[in-house]
Amino acid sequence: MPDARKPDRPHASAAAHPIDDDDLDGLAARRDATPAGPSGLGDRLAFLLGFVRDPAGVGSVVPSSHRLERRLVRNARIAEARTVVELGPGTGGTTRAFLDAMSPQSRLLAIELDPVFAGRLGDQLRDRRLHVECGSAERIGEMLAARRLSAPDAIVSGIPFSTMPQDVGERIAAQIAQVLRPGGVFVAYQVRPRVADFTSPHLGTPKFEWELWNVPPMRVFTWVKPAA
Ligand SMILES: C[S@@+](CC[C@H](N)C(=O)[O-])C[C@H]1O[C@@H](n2cnc3c(N)ncnc32)[C@H](O)[C@@H]1O
Predict the structure, then answer these.
(1) N or C: where does the chain have the smaller number of CB atoms within 10 Å of the terminal CB?
(2) Cβ atoms of residues 123 and 96 within 8 Å
(3) How far is Cα 20 from Cα 30, in angstroms, rounded to an integer?
(4) Candidates 48, 49, 58: which one to mutate for ligand 1, based on the most atoms within 8 Å of Cβ?
(5) What is the pTM of this model?
(6) At 130, which helix (H) or strand (E)?
(7) pLDDT, tens digit (0-9, with 9 covering 90-100), for 146-173
(8) Does the beta carbon of 140 lie inside 6 Å of ligand 1?
(9) Which of 182, 225, 228 is nearest to 202 (CA)?
(10) pLDDT over 70 at 114, yes or no
(11) What DSSP line would sit under 142-185, residue for residue?
(12) What is the rounded distance in angstroms from the CA atom of residue 89 to the CA atom of residue 156?
């Protein structure tokens, strides 16, 4: 019996036609209206346990809402991207949303610091487009090279820049700016705005939005790397 939560190939909908805003609206509306099933409850419990293991590193007690996922997919232009990097996938709700929107030929590198989350992600999301790496986002360049992945069109980050040491934040922001392809997009969803202190010196002024339909309400920053 195939398990819809464990696709071993890209979803037929992504292969059949490009995803537009109506598709995303419909998807988000259905998912927001659906009570948490067994996997939703399992994800929430695993996420809470992750927060107990490392409150500062995880930075939130519940996974992102589907409305926030939808905003990330739009802002990062995930449907058009060939290579996507996710920093801090956690229990994988955002990762699933990206895979749902991505084309069959695309690749997603998910970098997760917590070994329990990273192992769980590899076990639960069986999709040949997904590469899971356990380690710090400070090593994005090295991880892309090891997998022979092209310069990312989009990097999406939920890692809590507000609680990390200054030198770690500086190294991650420098890596993001270095590996992103010219014209590529960096999207960060954060409770606090400190990510901009690290990233704006490299990528300039971001677009800023609130996503209020999330616990807690989330700041969403979007940078586009200059083309030249
Ligand atoms: C707020 S959670 C986001 C989880 C998930 N993407 C979501 O939206 O529900 C932040 C995640 O970033 C991970 N993390 C924190 N610091 C990291 C780092 N330096 N490199 C990679 N992942 C990191 C944490 O372990 C945690 O899973």
Answers:
(1) N
(2) no
(3) 16
(4) 58
(5) 0.85
(6) strand 130-134
(7) 999 999 999 999 999 999 999 999 999 9
(8) no
(9) 225
(10) yes
(11) HHHHHTTPPPPSEEEE-S-TTTS-HHHHHHHHHHHHHHSPTT-E
(12) 9
